[in-house]
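Tokens help. One example:
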Amino acid sequence: MKMFKMGRYQTLVATLTLFMVGTGAVLGLNYLFASRAAESMVAVRSISQQRLQPRVIAGQAQIVKNDLGARRYLGRGLSELKGNVSAFDGALADLDRFATANSALARFGYEPFGSPITQRRLQELRQVWGEYRQLLKPIVGFSVGPYVETADRGTQLSAAGLRLNRQLDEAVRFGMARHEDMAKLVSALAASVEAQTQARVAKLRIYLLSALGASVVLLLAVMFYFGRNLSRQERSSTRSKKETDDILRTVNQGLFLLDKDLKIGSERSEALERIFRRTDFDKLGFDGLLRGIVPEKTLDTAMEYVRLLWGERVNEKLIKTINPLVEIEVHIDNGSGQLDTLHLEFDFNRVRADGSVTRLLVTVNDVTRRVHLAHELLESQEKAQAQLDLLLHILHVDPRQLTSFLEESEVAMKMVNSILKEPAREETAFRAKLDGIFRQIHGVKGEAAALGLKTVESRAHGFEESLAELRGRPALSGNDFLPLVVKLDDLFGHLSSVREMVGRLADLRVAMSSEDAEPKDHTDTGVAGPEGTLIQPASQLLARMAEGAEASGSLESSLKSLASRIAGEQSKQVQLACSGLDNVPKNYRHAVKDIAIQMVRNCVAHGIESPSERSNASKDAAGTIVIKFESRDADGYEFVIQDDGRGLSTERLKETAVQRGLLSADQAAQLDDRRALSLIFMPGFTTQHGVTKDAGRGVGMDIVRNLVQELGGKVGVSTTVGRFARFRIWLPAASSARAA
């Protein structure tokens, strides 16, 4: 009895194996033939859709010919002709590829192009179209001018146009003569292939019925077999469920399913609770999961995206590229009333059943560490790039100008440090400290801008932002100045790194010029700045660098670079002409340089108009700034800065002073033109609405006035609205001037 049962079992296994192999083979062939039949129908329909294309092409060629004869624009007609020719080429190419791909099925009795009639028709179609295509080739590739203009006969055909006209004649004649033949060939070819395909589909039905019968027998056998092993399967399912639970408990990703109502399913990983720090997921919607931890706009975008995933026609791989929930920033309550900032990454995969989407599998990863590392890497790259840019620019700066800037900025930083240490108790003393610091920092910023040292300029600009914020406060205290120490230390440190970089360049230049020269140690001497910053004397760092280095520029070149940079940022054009700057007395050079830098910035930012404004005013597109320094012998010196821009409007100056609270309306009305022009020298006065690194704070002209007064000089202003503004500065003889 036992042997009998074993024999039946072996027979069942053998039967199942046989039917499985046979059914699989039949279904595989059935699927293959069905797929090829469907493809053949698609290919035939594709070429059938092109049945009238030869006639359309012939008509379009005639239209192009008519346009050519009427001397009209040919671009649109040629473009449409080219598109239709390409479409017919593509349809024939698809048909050829399909015929080649299916030739391997001939051994199984399937070859949609197997009949001689079909082959002959396909060959005839290729031949006729090939001849027609050869005639159309130079036409669709035509790209030169078809017309020439003559004085006596107007627009005539060029040599290329005459050649195109002859080609169009040949193409039109051929198309009109043969387009009906091609249409008939296409129709006959489609009908022939379709008939052969239908005949083979009938054979497929027999294969399908056979496979279906075998499947029924196999199903009965399987039902009998698995009926006896139902309890075994149940035990296996229980074991699988436990394994699934173990996986969900162990994985570090948050895993859950979303149904069509976008509700979270009952099966989810325990990591989901750790990530979102909550346990109430039952019947929770996806919007409820995100609400409160992301902005509403992000939530709306996320919900629209998830709904798109349910569309059957939406390409899953394509839509993943626009996932809005990649490295999204969330703010989650950590249970102690504080919010933790995390970066989460959501991944969505469709779960299909019976060919349709039934659920979405959502994977949530905490990528906070990865995002932080990426930010740190980006910051490091930006810093390295900034250092490289600074190095490259230093290489192009005149060593003497760089030496002067570093020495003067060192003095300015020490001055700011001293001002910060000065005791103050009254409001006026605090305001005076602010003005003194503002003046020093503004000078460093201006000269850094003139030399193109953007990193120094940007830090000085940030310092000014902090100073401007303090200026706007109604009352000040000593504690308000503490943040400035941090800003000063940052600027000190950056200038120190510039000195160190310059020192290394100096060593490199000395080493390259003399094999016996030994680089000096730049770390032994220096002055301690705020917070222990080491400040090395610029003269020591640049002494060797300046030796033998030819001047690559001067104050004039710096001013031109500054003007060009500001003009470029404001979409303006400017030309700067300087004279006499090389003859400035030594004790005037620093002050004249600061004045010139500030005046150039003002001229470009406020005076020079945009090219369109200048064009409307019948001016050249490029504005002109003229700077002259001349000796007046015993009478001293005359320093003139003039631009041909919009000039100064006294009425606008008065209105601005009233708007900024510097004057009352009655006080402004009583001012004559001379006093109205003097408003530009008031601290905090500016006609610009926004603040940029070049204008808008109202301190530039105040600094100019103070510099001139310190030298014992005077400033005069003359202007014509819409034409020019001229600043004439008189300076006493150098021997009688005060220290600049």
Notes: The CA atoms of residues 121 and 491 lie 84 Å apart.
